[in-house]
Structure formats: C-alpha cells, structure tokens
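We keep the chain:
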Amino acid sequence: MSFQNPVFIPGPTNMPEALRRAADMPTLDHRSSLFADILHPALDGVKQVLKTTSAEVFVFPSTGTGGWETALTNTLSAGDKVLAARNGMFSHRWIDMCTRHGLDMQVVGAEWGAGVPLDRYEEILRADKNHDIKVVLATHNETATGVKSDIAGVRRALDAASHPALLYLDGVSSIGSMDFRMDEWGVDIAVTGSQKGFMLPAGLAIVAFSPKAVALTETAQLPRTFFDIRDMRAGYANNAYPYTPAVGLLNGLKLATEMLLDEGLENVFARHNRIASGVRAAVEAWDLSLCAQSPDLYSDSVSAILTPQGFNATDIVTHASEVYGVAFGVGLGEVAGKVFRIGHLGSLTDVMALSGIATAEMCMVDLGLDIQLGSGVAAAQNLYRQSTGHPIKAAA
C-alpha cells in the first residue's frame, strides 16, 4: 500500500492536511480553559452538521460501535422491545449488540441491497396496540451494500401509526457526507464517528440525544459507566470530561465542522452526489451493477459493485493493494466475494475519484474481466465535465 495514493475505502477516509495537523498538537491541560475553547465549539459545530437545535451532543473516545452502545445503555432496560431491520452487515451488528444486552428484538428481514422496509415497519407499529415497542432502529446508510434508506419515511411510518417509540439512527457513513436532518426527521438518537464524513482518524464516537432520549437516562436500567451521558453532561458543565479526553481528535473535530460549514452543507452533499454519480456512470460503462436495488437507494458515500457470478470480487481488492498500492473495500457478510466497494466520501474531489475508477478498471482488466480499458474513466470524465458546466464539444 502506498501512502501517496488516496484511499477508496468507506472509512477511515482521506484526511486533509489541515485536519491532520490540528489533531497532531502538543499536550495541554484538559482541565484548563484552553480545553473549553476546543470542546464547546466542536459540540456546537456537530449540532449544526446534524441540523439540530434541540439535541445534546456527546463525544466519547471510541468508535461508532461505542456510539451504538451509548444509545442503548443510556435509554433502555433488559427486556425492552426494539424493532429493527436486518438489511446489511452494520444493521446486523447493531441487532447483535441489542441481543447481547438482553433486549427483546423484533427483526424484519430484508434483502442485502434493499432499504429499510417502510411498509412492514408501519404494519408492525400499527399492530402494536399496547406500544410495547420502545425504540425503532434504522441504518441510514448501509456501508456493506451501498444502500441509503429513507429516514423521513421511517418517521412517517411512526407518525402514521401514532406510535410513541423513539427513533435511533446509525448515521456513521452518512452524517457529514449526505443530507441529514435530525430535527426535521424526528430522530431521537443519531450515532456517527470521526473517521468518515468528519475526515479524521477513528477514535471518536459522536452521539446526539433528543430531549426525549435524554429523559430516559433516569429510568434506563442497562449497566453503563464509561458511556454514561449523565457523567458526560456534568463534565461538560465544568468544561471538562469525566475522564481523560482525546484532545487532539477533538481539536480536529472542531476544525472539521468549521470546514464543512464553510464549504456549506448543501455544497458538501452536492459534491458527494456528483462524485458518486461519476462512479455510478463508470459502473454502467463497465456493464456491471450496484448491490443497491434501485436508484432511490444509491448511496452517495459508498458504491458496492457486483462482479459476474463465479468471479471472486475480493481479488480486485487484493490486486489493487498489491500491484497498484490502492485500497478498496471488500464485500462483507452475505455479499463477501460478490462485491467490491469504492468509498467516495469525506475529503475527495472529482480528480481523486478518477484515479480510483482508473485503478479499479486496470485491476478488472488484469484479472480477465470483460472490461474495456478507459470506458469507466471516460464515462466519469464526461459526467464531471458536464457537472462543472464545461462545454462538451462533439467529435469532428
């Protein structure tokens, strides 16, 4: 692997040099006023990225998985009923965590490549006359399959059923890269991490709680110590943490939110959509398909690309690493060996994306797939040129 090449995995993502420098800072006293000048702007910046004015943000030295555990242990008790869909590896892992915590899971199966089944959610919620279901889980962007689910639609299902269950969201590979509206969509807990849309190293679990979710901390009986948001709230009130914080990463998070907001969130989302559209144009030119079953499900942060039956897609990832020094994502779970993944989120440009498309193309040709060298690159180039307003002249 070459450190000179950008990575095309769906996280951790490429780091802007400014963020790398911000996270690489001298030691400071995390109980001093200097830390307060890092902590509170970082929290406020995250709130703006989440498009919330009412939620409280908590940042733990952890990863998205720790964020999931924070959501569950602060609000639920053993035996509480939770509704979830299993439509990919990361929804599966969240369900597994719930089960290990003794929660009563009602799991809706869905194909890997499909989104959250909204009709089935609404049907189950309408049938739950006693309101036994306490929480509904949804994975906004299923990183294993490149599938984006309709979170506003999940909220509509809850509202249509007049159900009081809270809505918890895994936004690890969507927040900071794709449109996310915590308040408008009625999300009660949103979970993400530092290593994807925020363009930082792994190490921070970022979790936002609505007022309703915060209120549940007083009755929740699942054990928690490190992830207890009550301790974190008390620490924040004194400009501190209940334990030693990851100061450098928090300083990076402060700058990351500033960079996203300075670019403009709508511009960030448009950039991700444009880059993703170029990747999708390349896939079409290769005569391949995405794992996502329909265009409304296409993720703007990662594309899972199906290879022909009988071909081991992992060979593309291995070949890219060993021969060209470039990282792509392997298939996970039910799609292992069937797809390879191109991550196109975080710090990425059209030109960087073209290098990834070109590398994937070279690998497929090297490995004997019936791909015309240059076809995908040309398709992406045409899309990127059109999206910048550059006039495209017809060939003479």
